[in-house]
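Re: folding output
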Amino acid sequence: MAETLDTSAFRRGLKIEIDREPWEIIEFQHVKPGKGSAFVRTRIKNLMTGRTIEKTFKSGDVVGKPDIDEREMQFLYREGEHYNFMDNKNYEQTFLTAEQMGDAKNFIKDNTTTHILFFNGKAIGVTLPNSMDLKVVKCDPGIRGDTVSGATKPAELETGYVVNVPLFINEGDTLRIDTRSGEYLTRVAG
């Protein structure tokens, strides 16, 4: 029998296996009602499909521990809908589809070091660094006198992703983008 985890081990980011599929706990809450037994309310994300569901477990329920392996790999190039990665240790190459890449495809650029998630030996997803520095390729100039506090404008980045930025950002600037939320963090001195 594979390793198991019970609800007392639940925490954010924990990977669990339900019905032979890997899931990641996004949120959890231990609930002890006045009557009845305690339970754990969770929001979990399927690591294969990206689908998020809410699931309730009785206190003491047991779930499987998935056969998940995370390897550091370097992004080489994109070919159509496939993204090619190379293992830095043994130079093996792995492909992920655009669907498996999820939002990461908006921020990844050549030679980025990432972590690829493998489930039962098959690549299923990618984890980028928390922030990426990307160059602005298309951006309207800020209009002089347009000084509304917190005003933003759209800027297209080198990956094709469009992000809202402050008015002082210009084409050619390098921006730090949060890969988890897709938001502008700061301008990087280039």
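--- second protein (sequence, then structure) ---
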Amino acid sequence: MTTTTTTWRELAAELDAADPLAGVRDEFLLDSAPGVTAYLDGNSLGRPLRATATRMTAFIEREWGGRLIRGWTEGWMDWPQQLGDQLGRAVLGAAPGQTVVADSTTVMLYKLARAAVDAAADGRDEIVCDTDNFPTDRYVVEGIAAERGCRVRWIETDPDAGITLDQVRAAVGPRTALALFSHVAYRSAHLADAPGITRAVHDAGGLVLFDLSHSAGSVELDLDGWGVDLAVGCTYKYLCGGPGAPAFGYLAARHHGVLRQPVQGWMGHADPFAMGPGHTPAAGARALLSGTPPIVAMVPVRCGLDLVERVGMAAIRAKSVLLTRFALDLADDLLAGAGVTVASPRADAERGGHVTLRRPDFRAVNDRLWEAGVIPDFRAPDGIRLGLAPLSTSFAEVLEGVQVLAREAGR
């Protein structure tokens, strides 16, 4: 291919014209950020939907303002499970009754990991985790290990890659209580072999917990089919739930009534308004709740899930693959000779929804990109991540972003 600027523009235009999700972009508030010509950070914070602004106003005026405290008995109490079931159906590949929306990812991660460790058989005193997992995941397992007298068995992973099945097989064994991994690596976007890893952990007699924060809304998932025990994730990235949006927790039905999360609050009680002595957990995944659900924060999550369910994860994943492949092709051409290293998998089946590029001075380059109206993000020590949200990102936007990156990297 002749890789002139004109050729890239023509190709981006062709890809946008052929994109079956192109019209969905109009459902986002694309013009609300003046001066931003390329938003490439959807893997950190998704753009807001127009419907979110409308529904938030309606909620405040009619449901909160109009119904006041009556809103709890008229439906709010069930929102964590209702949104959880929709998330399970539209995104996670999970049957009803196994997912709730509540808390932050860190809190939900602690609840599920601690429940798994507490339920482990005698002699199972190891938590397996990888050294390049997201910091929260590593910090949480270290804290639980200190609380429960366990040992963390670390798997050394390459930041430019991710956890592999062979590494997991070599690390798990008769002392494994829990194995915790990210399905899509936050640095490289490496897509882990979730079904294979799950089988390997189960063969060793342990439980597996996946962090789906960079997966949910970006890649297709089948938690029930894979046999996953536990999962957590956020809703503010590809699901467009907004900054600080509540997380989700998945607890496979076979563990209901067996695994007990440690933060025993009134909303996870079988009868919250009995307010009597002792804690009797609610049935099913509702037992994962602790305090009052963040109802206002759930409104944007509902909007995001409605859109994802309408479009379908198969179509979203198909565009995600094309976007990241296009970004890699652009990087190979426009950044050739600039000392930039691609730190994401080349194979489509091994790559999540973002592309990471590395160079020692990229922290300063990222600052200049923001000043120029191109918004990716930086991950230490030297990586710029191009987060390509399939529902709101165009191919022309990717081209603009990489062209400006090439200019700034060439200074």
